[in-house]
Amino acid sequence: MTALPSPAPLYGDALARVHADGFEDAALKALPALLARLKKAPQGPMLELGSGAGGLLAALLAAGFVVQGLEPSQAFRRLARARHGALPLRAGTAEAAPKGPWAAILAIGEVLNYCAPDGAFEPWPEKLARLGSLLAPGGVLLFDLMVQGPEPLAGAGWREDEHWLVAHRFSERRGRGRREITTFLRRGNSWMRQHEVHEVVMPTVAQLEQALHRAGLAYRLAARWGRRQPLPPRRLAVEAWRRG
Ligand SMILES: C[S@@+](CC[C@H](N)C(=O)[O-])C[C@H]1O[C@@H](n2cnc3c(N)ncnc32)[C@H](O)[C@@H]1O
């Protein structure tokens, strides 16, 4: 595996809270399209990688699916339990995903762009072949991914709420993205400041398709989850099946 320079812990208390309040709705808007695909999957347990604050996991359980969630950030796991009660959510990563067979594996919110917590990045062909091998025959892998385009992706912005403010800057060089994020979270009369740097690895669309093909997965790529949920620029929704 290739080592990336920043294996710092991701999603501390402040950023986890801001993500849950301000950004988790993107995954929830994709829910109808995800449910439509999951209904065609074989019967059996499902796995969600990078469950974050647990909103999608709770919604999938409420829809009657048997789902195990994995989330590396302790702050997120704490928040998920505070918001949704006892959830089948464990500490864990995509790199150490438990053996299946899983009827479906979900990784929503650019989860597969991240490296492992130790900074190592499994090349795309190995990553997708390994996840594909954990699927039951006919099982489906659903994820969204940032991909490389003709120009490097760059930008900055901020968002705020009564209780928080988050500012970020993103830059990309040769398929390696770096997002610097500063979060201010109100705590009573004072503000807590946290800074995180997230390193992500972005394939070209050709590399992604080659990796899916080599993994023996049938697949469909789209710029949106269903009609209602377009993704931001340079993100793809990927639906891949292990042939039955
Ligand atoms: C943008 S958040 C999305 C969270 C949630 N899925 C959602 O859509 O709201 C990215 C998530 O990926 C998780 N993550 C990062 N690296 C990971 C890895 N190697 N394995 C599994 N999850 C990872 C983060 O902890 C975080 O929960």
Short account of what is shown:
The protein has 244 residues and is an alpha/beta fold. It is 25% helix and 37% strand. It starts with a strand and ends with a strand.
Would you write up a description of this structure?
The protein is of the alpha/beta class and 244 residues long. The protein has two domains: 187 residues, Rossmann fold (3-Layer(aba) Sandwich), CATH 3.40.50.150; 42 residues, no CATH class. It has seven helices and 15 strands. The strands form four sheets. A seven-stranded mixed sheet has the order 4-3-2-5-7-15-12, with helices on both faces. Strands 8-9-10-11 form a four-stranded antiparallel sheet, with helices on one face. It has a two-stranded antiparallel ribbon with strand order 1-6. Helix 4 links the parallel strand 2 and strand 3. Helix 6 packs across helix 7. It is globular. The two termini are 30 Å apart. The model has no long low-confidence stretch (mean pLDDT 94). The structure holds S-adenosylmethionine (SAM).
- How is the biggest beta sheet arranged? 7 strands, mixed
How many strand units? 15
Reading off the top of the CATH hierarchy, the class of the largest domain is best stated as Alpha Beta
β-sheet strand percentage:
35-45%
CATH architecture of the largest domain: 3-Layer(aba) Sandwich
User: Globular, elongated, flat, extended or rod-shaped: what is the shape?
Assistant: globular
Class from secondary-structure proportions:
alpha/beta
**What's the arrangement of strands in the largest beta sheet?**
4-3-2-5-7-15-12
By CATH's scheme, which homologous superfamily of the largest domain applies?
A: Vaccinia Virus protein VP39
Ligands: S-adenosylmethionine
Distance between the termini: 30 Å
Show unreliable segments. Answer: none
Task: Say what the CATH topology of the largest domain is.
Answer: Rossmann fold
H/E element order: EHHHEHEHEEEHEEEEEHEEEE
Radius of gyration: 17 Å
What is the percent of helical residues?
Answer: 25-40%
Number of domains: 2
